[in-house]
Amino acid sequence: MRYGDVTAVDGLTLRVEPGTVTSILGPNGAGKTTTIETCEGFRRPHAGRVRVLGLDPVADAAELRPRVGVMLQSGGAWLGVRTEEMLRHMASLHAHPLDVPALIERLGMGSFARTSYRRLSGGERQRLSLAMAIVGRPELLFLDEPSAGLDPQSRRATWDLVAELREHGVTTVLTTHFMDEAETLSDFVHIVDSGRVIASGSPGELSGDGSRNTIRVTARPGLALGPLADRLPTGSSIEEPVPGQYVVTGDVCPPLVTAVARWFSDQDVLVESMLVERQSLEDRFLELTGKALR
């Protein structure tokens, strides 16, 4: 996809597996929203091939729309329409919609069900957009920044709903800037930068790939480390960069933590502190895309 001389999506290739929650992460301007809108059929790609549920999202739009739910980043409702009216209208477009009153209660929309869209807060508009996306019981759900502007309770309710939809076989594709959201919800993550996929995998695979997980121990300085190094799993190492500060590097797992703690105990050495540090998905994201503001 190009906008003038700017190539917003540049040979981006990815696949979303059925029945999963897949997150697309990237800095501002990386091409996430353009990619999602192309898959939704709102934009026709200038080159390449896009298939959603096996169909062309532009040429087969009439066949595809009843099977897909879309939560837009903004808008989607008429300014003068009331919340419940808009949701009932969306429900009327589907053969077997969800129960509207139950959905309003589930998403905590009762307090503004009779409020016009123009008077809704940003968080209330987000909840209405989510309700509009799922009311038709979609097979595939696109969520663009689903928890942006939500308070903690609404955000958690959104997470619970996405997890519940997955249990019922719904495939969800979401974009988000919240790394904890991606880590909590996602089966798979694609990190996008400059219009290309630069890394893919589960949150655990991505955070562990190339990571430098460590155990930091504070204890009496000058201990002989050879015996401990012999006990460590393959691929692990230990050093004392500062007197009394011991750093164990490797695949941090319960057996490794146990081996380190047991060795200090066997030496009758009092451990003053032990800190386990694991790289997060956010750490990996910044490592791949850089920390500079775009």
Automatic annotation (TrEMBL):
Alphabetical list of Pfam families matching this protein: ABC_tran (PF00005)
GO molecular function terms listed in the Swiss-Prot or TrEMBL record: ATP binding; ATP hydrolysis activity
Annotated GO biological process: response to antibiotic
Keywords, alphabetical: Antibiotic resistance, ATP-binding, Cell membrane, Membrane, Nucleotide-binding, Translocase, Transport
Localization of this protein: Cell membrane
One cellular-component annotation, GO: plasma membrane
Membrane topology type: Peripheral membrane protein
Domain ABC transporter: 1-219
Major subcellular site: membrane
Name listed for the protein in its UniProt record: ABC transporter ATP-binding protein
Annotated source species: Aeromicrobium camelliae
